[in-house]
Amino acid sequence: MKRTLEAFSRRAAAAAAALCMMSGQALAIPAPVAGRPVDGAIDLQAAATPAAQNIHDFNNFILFIIIGISVLVLALLVWVMVRYNRRANPTPKSFTHNVLVEVVWTVVPVLILVLIAARSFPILYEQERTPPTELTIKAIGNSWFWQYEYPELGVQVASNMLPADDSQLSAERPYLLAVDSPIYVPIDTNVRIQVTSNDVIHSWTVPSFGVKQDAIPGRINQGWFRVTREGTYFGQCSELCGVNHAFMPIEVRAVSRAEFDRWVVSQGGSLAQAETPAVAPPAAAPAEAAPAAGVEQPAR
């Protein structure tokens, strides 16, 4: 009997230890990876630009308003069902209007919309205006890959999704997001992104940047971003553009200025093209030729 109890105790302890280990694994939250989706996450991707951070703050602000409205409506519904059901109120009231209630449910939503507008309009303005930029990137949508041009640097990049069996794929560069030729941008630099398309409508979208610009044939849409921390950031085409719409990812690497300059040189670009050329002084007017000897000059 004693041996049986000891064996049972050992098995129970082993089972408890295994259960604790499994619970620890189940509760373990993977470390956030900047710029890409994370399994089990419930929040937006980490913001890498001031614009994206403003969008996140606005989202949280709206979330509290939505929760408040939902709780209020639920409380009113419960109160009406309990207070005015047939058993508690067998003789219903006969009125059809209540001026105070009608004023409240008109004025309060208007005030809420004004409050939302006061927070959203400055964010829209910051997104739509283009401050002085130091770098321009032109993103051209094709079926189904992205082509990039750095007009000021003389660099062109064609970016295709890596196939499922490519050796470059890893946990940090997952399938359906990693590309064969990512683009580079320097951190703490205002970057203008010009987006267009060669065929159908695409959409250049990087959630961590807070940028989503439609690529429309024959038109150039423009946005901007300023990445504040180094890392690799992923996005995807966000417009239903055809059968391979799901295989048109975006990969942007934000690096230091020195590393970005090295990448430009490795791509055959020229850093000198990014410098503003000096304005040449105006050419001096040719001096009037001296009159030839013995030639009479007309009177002025």
Provide structural commentary.
With 300 residues, the chain is α+β, with helices and mostly antiparallel strands. It folds into two domains: 50-128, Orthogonal Bundle (Helix Hairpins); 135-273, Immunoglobulin-like (Sandwich). 33% of the residues lie in helices and 19% in strands. It contains four helices and ten strands. The strands form three sheets. Strands 3-2-1-5-8 form a five-stranded mixed beta sheet, with no helix packed on it. Strands 4-10-9 form a three-stranded mixed beta sheet. Strands 6-7 form a two-stranded antiparallel ribbon. Helix 2 runs antiparallel to helix 3 (99-128). The radius of gyration is 32 Å and the shape is elongated. Residues 1-33, 276-282 and 284-300 have low confidence and may be disordered.
Give a quick set of tags describing it.
300 residues; alpha+beta; Helix Hairpins; Immunoglobulin-like; 2 domains; 5-stranded mixed sheet; 3-stranded mixed sheet; 10 strands; elongated
Short description:
This protein has four helices and ten strands. With 300 residues, it is α+β, with helices and mostly antiparallel strands. It has two domains: 50-128, Helix Hairpins (Orthogonal Bundle); 135-273, Sandwich (Immunoglobulin-like), CATH 2.60.40.420.
List the helices and strands and how they pair.
Layout: H1 2-27, H2 50-83, H3 99-128, E1 135-142, E2 145-150, E3 155-159, E4 183-186, E5 191-197, E6 202-206, E7 211-215, E8 221-225, E9 231-236, E10 249-255, H4 257-266
Parallel strand pairs: 1-5, 4-10
Antiparallel strand pairs: 1-2, 2-3, 5-8, 6-7, 9-10
Helix pairs in contact: 2-3
